[in-house]
Automatic annotation (TrEMBL):
Matches recorded under PANTHER family: CHROMOSOMAL REPLICATION INITIATOR PROTEIN DNAA, DNAA REGULATORY INACTIVATOR HDA
Native species: Pseudoroseicyclus tamaricis
SUPFAM superfamilies in alphabetical order: P-loop containing nucleoside triphosphate hydrolases
InterPro entries: Hda_lid (IPR055199), P-loop_NTPase (IPR027417)
UniProt GO cellular component terms: plasma membrane
Span of domain Hda lid: 160-217
Highest taxon of source: Bacteria
Name of the protein in question: Chromosomal replication initiator DnaA
Length: 219
């Protein structure tokens, strides 16, 4: 029998401050990121693996602190520098292009001279970013590096709830504890497990149950 063809669209990801789950493992990180006045020399390098919440934290700053957010891959010569004291977030420094390095250099210097703040996000620390402009490399490598920790048990539980909610799924009460006890302690593992369950349930027309989850994830 031919399997059912399904077209799956990911759920709308909730990225407000109220949707950021806190636990002992990430409370200090939250306090530092959301208080730009504490950033040493006014700049921060937020480093974490895929799906660890870097973009979520950028959107929290955008909404709560009026930050301007731009992907590193889109940096280009700026017709005008931002107003004095601006809070800027440059996302995914791994995607920085050669032609974006000089604009970032001028942006960095402008923010430093006018009391602005700069947060840069990436999967790896600044020394491993694709930067060939020596003056820029020196400046970004002086940023305070804040690493996103792997989730503890409490945060893992919360992340599972969030990922199911983002996909408008209602897992049975016993499923979350079962997943918490079996998944690798990482943000990516949670995202991948929930995505697999969602896709399989849709493709097979099945309800989300513990036996079904066992079949999908352990079968």
């Amino acid at each position: 029998m031919q399997s059912q063809l399904s077209f799956h669209l990911p759920g709308l990801v909730s990225q407000g401050a109220e949707n950021f789950f806190l636990s002992d493992s990430n409370a200090a990180l939250w306090e530092m990121v959301t208080d730009p006045a504490r950033w040493p020399a006014g700049k921060l390098a937020l480093v974490g693996p895929p799906a660890s919440g870097k973009s979520h934290l950028a959107r929290v700053l955008e909404a709560g602190a009026d930050a301007q957010v731009i992907p590193a891959a889109r940096l280009a010569p700026l017709p005008d520098l931002p107003p004095d004291g601006t809070l800027m977030v440059v996302e995914d420094m791994g995607g920085l292009r050669p032609e974006g390095q000089e604009p970032l250099f001028h942006l960095h210097n402008h923010l430093a001279a006018t009391g602005g703040r700069l947060m840069m996000t990436a999967q790896v620390p600044p020394r491993d970013w694709p930067i060939t402009l020596n003056d820029l490399a020196t400046r970004v490598q002086a940023a305070f590096v804040l690493r996103i920790p792997e989730p503890d048990d409490a945060l893992l539980f919360g992340l599972l709830l969030k990922h199911f909610a983002d996909r408008q799924l209602r897992p049975p009460p016993e499923l979350i504890p079962w997943l918490s006890g079996r998944l690798e302690r990482s943000h990516a593992a949670v995202a991948q497990a929930v995505a697999r369950l969602d896709a399989a349930a849709l493709a097979e027309g099945r309800s989300l149950t513990l036996p079904f989850a066992r079949e999908v994830l352990e079968g």
